[in-house]
Fold this protein.
Amino acid sequence: MYLGRSLTVTRGAGLGAALLAFATLTACTAGGTASRTGATPAARDTLTFGVDGTLPNLDPILASNSTVDQAVVPVYDALLDFSPANEIVGRLAEKWTVAPDARSVEFTLRPGVTFHDGTPVTAKDVAYTLDRIKKLGVGVAESVSAYEKTEISDDTHFTIRLSTPSSLFLGALSKVYVLNSKLVQAGAGSDDGQAWLATHVAGSGPYTLASYTPNQHIKYVRNDAYAGADPRIAKTVVYRLLPESSTQRDELENGNIDVSDGIDPIDVPAFENNPRFEAVRLKKPQGLYVFFNTQKGATADRRIREAVRLAYDYQGHAKTILRGFGSVAAGPLPDTMGCRADIPDARQDLARARELVAESGQKDLKLTMAYQQIFSEHAEAATALQSALKQIGITLELKPTAYPNYLESLKSVDTTPQLALLWDNPPTPDAGSLLYRTYSSKFLGSSTNYGQYKNAEVDALLDKAVSSGDETARCAAYKKAQELIEADAATMNIADHETVIIAPKGVTGIELYPAHVGYVPQAYKVS
Amino acid sequence: MTSMTTSALLRRPVLRLRRMPKLDRAAFAMVGLLLLTVAFGPLLAPYDPYHVDLGQAMLPPGAEHWLGTDSSGRDVLSRVLYGARPTILGSLCAVGLSALIGVTVASLAALAPRWVDDAIMRICDIALSLPIMVMALGISVALGPSLRSAIIAMVLSWWPSFTRLARAEIRTTMTSTYVESAVITGVSRWRLMTRHVLPNSLDSVYVQVTLEIGGATLIMAGLSFIGAGAQPPSAEWGAMVESGSRFLTSAWWTAVVPGAVITLTALAFALAGDALRARTSGREVM
């Protein structure tokens, strides 16, 4: 999973009486938030977005991080992308054909597309981009690990060869942003342009970079030379990095930002009732899970895992913790994805949970759960699970963990937490993109098989699906694998998320682009 | 004699109470009530303060839940009653330990050669220059955030102020004629300190302790508020304000109730400290 968010505590410090004074003051002024009425919406030249997270780097190879992805989406183009209807559509690519053995893909580029400096986009640039990813082996490299080489026929025709058959490769190209090879090589130095690309852009996207201050703001200007440029999109787009939900709320109210997707659900109704704004609810490719250490300790016992799953109040989570902005999970895949097996919603059954604990023979069981305390959903869910488990005789100790430390702990079964509460975002809407990296034993000890899960039957099904060119057969294998994973109670699937994008009235085109967790500003039409 | 020792004060409590101004009486009553809450609060709590019931979340104050419920459906009154222990006991611990260390170091400084005294005082100066919040954050990173880390941080940054206070008092007492007489009669250093000097030097330390408990409660709550103190689901008051602060617009009681209790506690101890100081410094002539 990748969370492009700050993992440091940035809450402001206030003390005692000051707290109370603040509390009282805010409580007294509350309710006034929605009362302000603005002028009638007019077409605007600039859209300012509040972005939740930290952004030290603009290198598109790091687009596996959702904050980096939404920062490079306006200025780069990938070969392909997923449409809001979950279908693969061409961006730089005009045509593509997957070989029947799923070991190569033939591409034709859209003619006449140029980079921001006027250089045409050619097959050479695609080859450079993919070779660079393979060489550096970071960020999106894992999702295109099957890449072997690019064979160039001419400027607009080329074939990508894969070392192993992979049906996931095509979808993964939606996060491979094509670099202007000449420009990068000129500024490259000895690190393949990593330092240069951290603060510069070498893309062909519908916007160009105007200015960038790491972790503070980015300004984009519309690229009118863009092939198929849409005159209805804003001339200038600004991202302001505001990790605090309450800051985003205040800035939005005061007109300092126009668009926000980081508003705490508790504050959303105030904006829904505000005539200046429109609140668009979108499904989000994100779920909340508890991953069990399936190999070691008490959680290696399926009955204990099932008991923990049955103890939790899922309805309460969706209704109270998510305040209705989400739904109870059904199976290991978020509901934005294709090829989901028919698995019923997770449910609470304390009586059965107690039976299972008794059957397992465990007495006075103590479990430890790692969680990221800085996220309020995690903190509330952790407390709720702790209280629920107490009712079935299990003591749950909560261990606040920073995300990088958690990833480090996954390197060995011994250090993997017994339970870990985690958001997970599928890399692409393709079911395999999440299932393969999370449940295939090939990824044991890597940072993606969170539960150290191993089941030979699931392995075989996933391998078969990933190497199959036949979509129907692939989907059937994915569904069967999900059923087995569910039967193993490998993961506690808690909730699928929704996001709310608050934007000024009159802005249209706000849709879910399932390969991207954040904004896609080139889709937002202001007039 | 215009000032009296605290032990003398305690000997005639009833008499003192009758003559006490109303505000002081209220402050002492409040402190008494808070200490009773520390002792018996959990027995009085109507609900389990850790029982999450998401279906009962954010109920406003009413007949069933007198102070409402929080975002996880836990009873706020029960949590406030339970929270007295970590918050007030934690503060008492921090201030008590600081005073103990402070007085011990001051006694050593007073008995030791001049250069040791100087060295100790310079160490105090350095320690006093470190802001408590910065120190606490550092310690909570090193030891992991917890109530214990918060107490350690507070003791580390607080003992020097007690050392300074006690040292000044001890120095004054040492010049008294009865101490000089004791020295001449040849009593040991230990006996001199414990029987003659300390009992007559510690009044201002007692007052300071009472005064500081209020401040310590604020800092303890503040540390929990910024995530460096007590951890969820602990019912510590500062942590309760923190988790409730998100819901100020929709469920004010989740933050305002523990916030008000913190304020009242700080106020009660500050007023009680003031009253005690007035008595020991001789504004009231006995």
Summary: Confidence is low (pLDDT under 50) at residues 1-42 of chain A. DSSP finds 16 helices and 17 strands in chain A. Residues 471-487 of chain A form the longest helix (17 residues). The interface with chain B takes residues 9, 11-17, 19-20, 23-24, 26-27, 30-31, 33, 246, 264, 266-267, 270, 313, 315-317, 319-321, 373-374, 376, 379-380, 382-384, 386-388, 390, 398, 400 of chain A (CB under 8 Å).
